Amino acid sequence: MTSKIIMGAIGIGRIGKIHIENILRFFPDVELRTICDIQIKPLSSWAKSLGIINTTSDPSKIFRDPDIQAVLIFSSTDTHSEFIIQAANAKKHIFCEKPIGNNLKRIRESLEAVKQNGVKLMLGFNRRFDHNFRRIKSVVTAGQIGIPHIIKITSRDPAPPPLEFLKRSGGLFFDMTIHDWDMARYLADDEVEEVYAIGSALINPSIADFDIDTAVAVLKFKQGTMAIIDNSRQAKYGYDQRVEVFGSEGAIMVDNDAPNTARIFTSNSIESDKIHHFFLERYMQSYKDEMIEFLECLRENKNPSVTGYDGIQAVLIAEAAKKSLVEHRPVAISEIDSK
Amino acid sequence: MTSKIIMGAIGIGRIGKIHIENILRFFPDVELRTICDIQIKPLSSWAKSLGIINTTSDPSKIFRDPDIQAVLIFSSTDTHSEFIIQAANAKKHIFCEKPIGNNLKRIRESLEAVKQNGVKLMLGFNRRFDHNFRRIKSVVTAGQIGIPHIIKITSRDPAPPPLEFLKRSGGLFFDMTIHDWDMARYLADDEVEEVYAIGSALINPSIADFDIDTAVAVLKFKQGTMAIIDNSRQAKYGYDQRVEVFGSEGAIMVDNDAPNTARIFTSNSIESDKIHHFFLERYMQSYKDEMIEFLECLRENKNPSVTGYDGIQAVLIAEAAKKSLVEHRPVAISEIDSK
Amino acid sequence: MTSKIIMGAIGIGRIGKIHIENILRFFPDVELRTICDIQIKPLSSWAKSLGIINTTSDPSKIFRDPDIQAVLIFSSTDTHSEFIIQAANAKKHIFCEKPIGNNLKRIRESLEAVKQNGVKLMLGFNRRFDHNFRRIKSVVTAGQIGIPHIIKITSRDPAPPPLEFLKRSGGLFFDMTIHDWDMARYLADDEVEEVYAIGSALINPSIADFDIDTAVAVLKFKQGTMAIIDNSRQAKYGYDQRVEVFGSEGAIMVDNDAPNTARIFTSNSIESDKIHHFFLERYMQSYKDEMIEFLECLRENKNPSVTGYDGIQAVLIAEAAKKSLVEHRPVAISEIDSK
Amino acid sequence: MTSKIIMGAIGIGRIGKIHIENILRFFPDVELRTICDIQIKPLSSWAKSLGIINTTSDPSKIFRDPDIQAVLIFSSTDTHSEFIIQAANAKKHIFCEKPIGNNLKRIRESLEAVKQNGVKLMLGFNRRFDHNFRRIKSVVTAGQIGIPHIIKITSRDPAPPPLEFLKRSGGLFFDMTIHDWDMARYLADDEVEEVYAIGSALINPSIADFDIDTAVAVLKFKQGTMAIIDNSRQAKYGYDQRVEVFGSEGAIMVDNDAPNTARIFTSNSIESDKIHHFFLERYMQSYKDEMIEFLECLRENKNPSVTGYDGIQAVLIAEAAKKSLVEHRPVAISEIDSK
User: Quick one: D305 exposed, middle or buried, by C-beta within 10 A (0-12, 13-18, 19+)?
Assistant: First the structure.
């Protein structure tokens, strides 16, 4: 057996814990040397139960540890660029949760640092690793449905996050649609030329002061593919995640996963159980699978399939969508990118 | 346009009316010359509204009409053999509703009359013409699932007929399973060697005095295929009609038809509408399609695909199933057929 | 039995024939007195086989016949307004195929004639009578999914019509999306405020000279509902007709109808048969059901549920969509309606 | 945190490894002290990679270790009774893989030992913990479908095991249908009165010398429920695991799980991916979930829901089915149980 890959992790929230538990359970060839969080105290018993020895609230303990080969960044979006730069300058490979950042200039600087230091950077667009969407990608890539003409993405959360979160999140196009911008690019295998977006606060009028909770966006890709994304912060029936690609030779559609296949036939109706309610249930496997790829890239010196470039493109589209919403017109990505 | 085919019909109950309305609507090349029913009076306004001129309670009016080329027998089962014999002796082609009769000796005589007079006889096993079951047959025949190993037929009525009907019907194996015996033979493309049947009156204990209302039967075919049939007089959720054939290379399964494709997603469940409740909704198209074949056989001098032989085989299996139920053991068809 | 309703029909193309055959088969209380087509000769044997006696190429024979109570207009779109005006002035009730016309001024004049003469006018938006979409409407109306937030309509033809037809059709937004504009209004139960549409000729570049063959449109309704429509002239897998309404309390989705329910399981995959290929197979029942309503309106002096107002609204939205496509910006219906 | 439960495991084959890896990953409150296999050498690197320190080929090391509270028996069927007796006499709780044994007299002795020593015994009928079948059970128990009338179980393996395995397995009714006998009892919530079974070697004629590879069995339960089981050693399309319960008020049906929800629409057909091929993919979660219950029983001093009684009942039914096959007649369980 080869030697273990030694890692440190920064930002131990909900997603951070998922990744860390996955690594400890399923990746015996990784040593998670140190974990860091600004509020590390409350995490100590959790860390101990998993056998994690080094815990700190000082990220530099990770960057300065010469044994650590890779840094996992799970902290809040506003810290991503800074941590990427520090990790890159410390010559450590990086796995960073999406979105890559919230400031285009700073994001570009972080990608420059990655480039200058020759380290690997993988973005955590986990949905690319989902069994359903991956199947779409494989069918599209194999040409089974011809050239993509229309991509349709439905992405609806079961319930809105607290207002306080929403006020700091950067807005629906940044904290929620960010996955869908990436999914559209991934499936079209092309770059977005223009965005048109409409939206309102249909669920909670209090949101209207600073954001929307229901949105529809239309994308035009350079090669002609069109994409439609619809979002809602509140689908009472569960976490609705569907994608469809229509092409010159056919179409592929994925429906939601179900908790079981039971159908109950009574004198009233035919009933099935609700779809999954929570993104963790829905996407659990994808978190594991993206980490498998990251490790493979480190072991075999391959480039990650989800790059910093993908990270910045999603942010550019989100900016264009926001501008479209405000200015009530289609907005070209080039209007944003040139800044 | 060729000349019209002239027909007479005997027995104008529920099924008779369906067939006659279909003919008048969709078969402009048929002239329905005369209809006959033992209680013809109450039918006069219905007949008039359809433009049927000759109505009678005397079937010999049909048999003696030299212009009539074909007789449609929709009367009660106990009259089938008699009418087949008379029609055959009058050199008229015959379409007869299932079952072919309820007395093996008499059935054999009627088939002999058909043979002697060289007329065509088609049995009304309409399910062979159903879009779902026909699709199974085509896949099995094309060899797509290899050699059939296990055939599964579920056939459940939404609600039991009145007790009075049940007392005269000949029993579940004759009035209900008769379709399934035929379907099993049709899909296996082979003859049944042996039957084992169990059953009880689980829905209505009053039935226990003379019949069962829930049954399971297992068939062994000569070439090795096994078939399972399950019946109930009362499926609260509707008219349940499913078939599955499992073979050496795969399987084909058909589910129930639905009144629409809607799925309603709420915070409780995912709901669809109930399946069809009534056999007429479910099998309407098949009644038309079997008549298309009968006409084709007359026009093009072809032999019907559902013959008197098929009719008698279904009755033999029903007799064997009844004997199995009574004697609590597997019964070979040869025990019945030799009588 | 009440006396028959006497009708005349103008324009005996594909749709006209469907309606006429339905009436003759299923509506014994209608007398189809006279049919008219500019090319009536080739229709004579078809008419004779159905027992239609009066055939003419002169529509005034219908308008001047005092016995005729209702006129069915199945002729080409450019003639609709003229025939509506003549029928209305002759005090005849009117069933008119969609779209109501292709010239806004003329359409308004025809509706004025209808109003002045106090006759009934029903528009042939048959999809409102489809079993799937009707089920959606009933669920939405019953409040089962709350207030509609997002409506999604997919409407794709299996193959484009001939180029010659397309050049005269008025364009995709008028000959094809016209159904979808109406469906969106019908399900939202509200009026459209604004349209944004994009589209290209992705299937056949020759179309690019005068029209598009693939389109995406986004509608904003006055009460806040958003709708997304996507169209293609060529879905290789069949006639794709799906609708979904997402609301504050849930969602309802309808999938395509299937020719049968068979699933074939082999060592390669699970296969089902293609969806219907042709709009007549898919919507046959709806043509009958809309005519049932029209007759009911005549018999019981009720107002049709699909009115001239609905007809003109669909045309207004189509005009706005066309303008949006050309001017590359969202277009308010008020910009068109004020003309 | 409470103290860990200390366990030993005997028989480290395919299933044993699954259970052990689950325990080490997901049950931090268990200490797996010692593992034992008659061929322990080849397992050493696997054990080391998991951090298991004590490995042995001598089961007495486990029975004699006073710290070990529970023994997990994953060894071959013929050893189960012996190990149950030894574990029970050593006052250790027991989790034993199905079937409970292959010799009725010996099984009874082992259950007596369990009883005398007051230890807990849980049988590994993992399918009871499967998400689909568990959902059926909950619906049946809640009375949503009324009194069960007909239970249908389809259980087909993707490919037969090697002939050598089959010769030693005890036969299809013991190594494969054993799950289905238990499932039928579990869902009927009643005891089997009588079995009728037919079967042949349809897949591999070489099997005919000592066993069958395709079977149909019919069960009669004491309260009147009927059950149908069909088995095949070779379903070319994958691992087919379906169950349906039909009752006086409705029905519940579960279909196979799918690897993804994608449907591919082309000009040929609609295609989905094959169902899971392997029982481990299909039932992975159930292996974890049954262990959760076993631990709960130990922690909270509860009785396992799957008992030694369940284990012996499944064997009795298998014996009756075998006798039915040989003697070609229905066989009462009482004929076997009285021995």
Answer: middle
In this prediction, residue C1 has a pLDDT band, given cuts at 50, 70 and 90, of: very low
Tell me how close the Cα of C238 comes to any Cα of chain D, in angstroms: 7
Please state which CATH class domain B128-284+314-337 belongs to: alpha beta
| A-chain residue closest to B273, CA distance | A269
pLDDT of residue C148: 98
Structure tokens at B22: 């279909």
CB spacing of C265 vs D273 below 8 angstroms: no
Peptide bond into B99 cis (omega under 30): yes
Is A255 in contact with D264 (Cβ distance < 8 A)? no
Task: For A128-282+314-337, give the CATH class.
Answer: alpha beta
Quick one: DSSP state of residue A158? S
Q: Indicate the class that CATH gives domain C128-283+314-337.
A: alpha beta
* Calpha distance A309→D268 (Å, rounded): 38
Residue A84, pLDDT > 80, answer: yes
CA of C144, closest CA in chain A: separation in Å? 12
* ipTM score of complex: 0.95
Closest CB to B228 among D203, D216, D235: D216
Name the token pair of A62.
Answer: 């990770």
Give D297-320 pLDDT, tens digit per residue: 999 999 999 999 999 999 999 999
User: Which stretches within C90-130 are classed as H helix?
Assistant: 104-117
Q: How far is D275 from chain C (nearest CA, A)?
A: 8
Q: Where are the beta strands (DSSP E) in chain A?
A: 5-10, 30-36, 54-56, 70-73, 93-97, 121-124, 148-156, 192-200, 214-221, 226-232, 240-247, 250-254, 262-266, 270-272, 331-332
**What's the rounded Cα separation, in Å, for the pair D219 and D184?**
9
Condensed to tens digits (0 to 9), the pLDDT of residues A196-243 reads 999 999 999 999 999 999 999 999 999 999 999 999 999 999 999 999
Distance (Å, whole) CA A214 – CA C266? 43
pLDDT above 80: residue D33: yes
Q: What is the pLDDT of residues D106-136, one digit of tens each?
A: 999 999 999 999 999 999 999 999 999 999 9
Average predicted confidence (pLDDT) for chain C: 96
Subunit contact C275:D270, Cβ cutoff 8 A:
yes
State whether A236 and B267 contact (CB < 8 Å): yes
Closest partner residue to B271 (CB to CB) among A235, A269, A275 is A269
Query: Between these two residues, A167 and D213, which has the higher pLDDT value?
Result: D213
Contact yes or no for C252 and B262 at CB 8 A: yes
CA distances from D317 to D192, D215, D310, D334 (A): 8, 14, 11, 10
Domain boundaries of chain B, sorted by first residue: 5-119, 128-284+314-337
CA dist., res. C279 & res. C157, Å (int): 8
Q: Do B269 and A267 touch (CB under 8 A)?
A: no
Which amino acid is it at B338?
Answer: S
What fold does the segment set C5-119 form as a domain?
Rossmann fold (3.40.50)
Q: How far is C208 from chain D (nearest CA, A)?
A: 25
Q: Give the nearest chain C residue to B131 (CA atoms).
A: C260
Chains that touch D (3 or more CB pairs under 8 A): A, B, C
pTM for the complete prediction? Answer: 0.96
| Minimum-distance CB partner of C216 among A202, A218, A248 | A218
pLDDT digits (tens, 9 = 90+) for C155-182: 999 999 999 889 888 899 999 999 999 9
